[in-house]
Specification:
The chain is an alpha+beta fold. Helix content is 36%, strand content 21%. It folds into three domains: 118 residues, 2-Layer Sandwich (Alpha-Beta Plaits); 97 residues, no CATH class; 98 residues, no CATH class. The chain contains eleven helices and eleven strands. The strands form three sheets. It has a four-stranded antiparallel sheet with strand order 1-3-2-11, covered by helices on one side. The chain has a four-stranded antiparallel sheet with strand order 9-8-7-10, sandwiched between helices. Helix 2 packs antiparallel against helix 3 and helix 8 crosses helix 9. The chain is globular and about 55 Å long. InterPro entries: Endonuclease_MobA/VirD2. It holds the Pfam family Relaxase. This is MobA/VirD2-like nuclease domain-containing protein.
Length: 334
C-alpha cells in the first residue's frame, strides 16, 4: 500500500483518484491463483494502467471466485490518466481474456459487474448507465443497516438518493429516486425512479439487504475491526486531515456532515475491507458526531479512546476520504 502514497501526494486535487475493478469469471471456469494473477495484470496493461501500482485480491463471498483490482488514476508525476472510453476498453479487454484463457463468455449482467466502479460524471453523459453501474454494485456488495447508510455510501460516487412517499389514486406508495450529484454534492440533471434500474435497488430489496446485513455484521462481529481502527486513529491523530489519512491506510473512509458554522453533526464510516457502512453512533457513543465535533473543533484536546480488541438524501458531505483498498492476497507489478 505504501507504493500508492507518492502518487497521491503528487496530485491532491483529483477528487476520485482510486480505480476499483471487479473481474468475475463464470462459475464453470477453473482457474489457478497464478492464472487469475496473470489475467489481472494483462487486464490492467490493456486498460492503460500497466505501469501503475495496483493490488489484486481474490474473493469467494459469492457463488464464484472473482477478483478485485485497486489502482490509482494518477501517475507518478501527478498527471491524471486518461479514462475516456473506459467502458468500451474494459469490454474489449475482457473479451480478449475470455478467448486467451478459454473462458465462458460473460453475459450482459456479468459484463456490467466487471466495469470499473467510479464516480458519476454528469458532463460525460449517459447518466442513467453511470448510476446503474454504481448502485447495483453497492447494493450487491456492501453491508448497511439503514437507507441512510446506503445513501451516505452513494455520495462517494456522486449519487444522491431520496425516499419518496405519497398517495396516488387513494393508494399509498413508497419509492426511491436516484440523482447525479456534482462534486459539491448538489443535484444535477433529472432524477431517476429506482424502478428504471431493476428490483435490486428498490426499497423492498434494499430492506431485505439491510436485514441480512444486520445478521452478518452481528454474527461475524464486523463492528469490532472498524471500532479498533477508528479508535487507533483518534489516539494517534490530532487533526481531521491526519485522522482521515490514518483511516485510509487501514482501508476505511469517513463522511462528516457539517453545518454552515462548521459543526460536525453526522459521521458515517465506510470499511472498504469488510464492505460495511456504519453510522458513528451505531458503533458506540464514543464514535458519535458530537465526540468528533469536540475532538476536532472543540478544545483541541484528545479524548481517551477505548482500546477495542477485537439523512437526508442530499446532504453535503465534507472531506470525503478517498476510497482505500482492502486486504489482498496478490500484488500487481509497478
Amino acid at each position: 500500500l505504501r507504493s500508492f502514497e507518492p502518487y497521491l501526494l503528487a496530485n491532491n486535487k483529483t477528487e476520485k483518484p482510486v480505480l476499483h475493478v471487479s473481474l468475475n469469471p463464470d462459475p464453470k471456469d477453473v482457474l489457478s491463483d497464478e492464472q487469475l494473477s496473470d489475467m489481472a495484470q494483462e487486464y490492467m496493461q490493456q486498460m492503460g494502467y500497466g505501469d501503475q501500482p495496483f493490488i489484486v485480491y481474490k474473493h469467494e463471498d459469492i457463488e464464484r471466485k472473482h477478483l478485485h483490482i485497486v489502482s490509482l488514476r494518477v501517475d507518478e508525476n501527478g498527471k491524471k490518466i486518461d479514462h475516456n472510453f473506459e467502458h468500451r476498453r474494459s469490454m474489449d479487454a475482457c473479451r480478449e481474456l475470455e478467448q486467451k484463457y478459454g473462458l465462458a463468455p460473460a453475459d450482459k449482467k456479468q459484463r456490467q459487474e466487471g466495469l470499473p466502479l467510479k464516480a458519476v460524471r454528469y458532463e460525460e453523459g449517459d447518466i442513467k448507465h453511470q448510476i446503474a453501474n454504481v448502485i447495483r454494485s453497492i447494493a450487491r456488495d456492501y453491508h448497511f443497516q439503514s437507507l441512510k447508510e446506503y445513501g451516505a455510501l452513494l455520495t462517494i460516487y456522486n449519487i444522491g438518493m431520496e425516499e419518496v412517499r405519497g398517495e396516488a389514486k387513494g393508494k399509498p406508495y413508497q419509492g426511491l429516486i436516484y440523482s447525479a450529484l456534482n462534486d459539491k454534492g448538489e443535484k444535477v440533471g433529472n432524477p431517476f425512479k429506482s424502478s428504471l434500474f431493476g428490483k435490486p435497488v428498490g426499497i423492498p430489496a434494499l430492506e431485505k439487504r439491510i436485514e441480512k446485513s444486520a445478521e452478518i455484521i452481528k454474527d461475524k462481529g464486523l463492528k469490532e475491526r472498524s471500532k479498533k481502527v477508528i479508535a487507533s486513529a483518534m489516539r494517534s491523530c490530532g487533526n481531521r486531515l491526519d485522522f482521515e489519512k490514518a483511516l485510509e491506510k487501514q482501508g476505511m473512509g469517513v463522511l462528516f456532515r457539517t453545518n454552515e458554522q462548521g459543526r460536525i453533526y453526522g459521521a458515517t464510516f465506510i470499511d472498504h475491507e469488510q464492505k460495511c457502512v456504519f453510522n458513528g453512533s451505531r458503533l458506540g457513543k464514543e464514535f458519535s458526531a458530537n465526540v468528533f465535533n469536540d475532538f476536532f473543533n472543540g478544545s483541541g484536546q484528545k479524548q481517551e479512546q477505548p482500546d477495542h480488541k477485537a439523512g437526508q438524501a442530499f446532504e453535503t458531505f465534507e472531506n470525503v476520504s478517498r476510497e482505500s483498498p482492502s486486504k489482498y492476497c496478490m500484488q500487481g507489478k509497478k
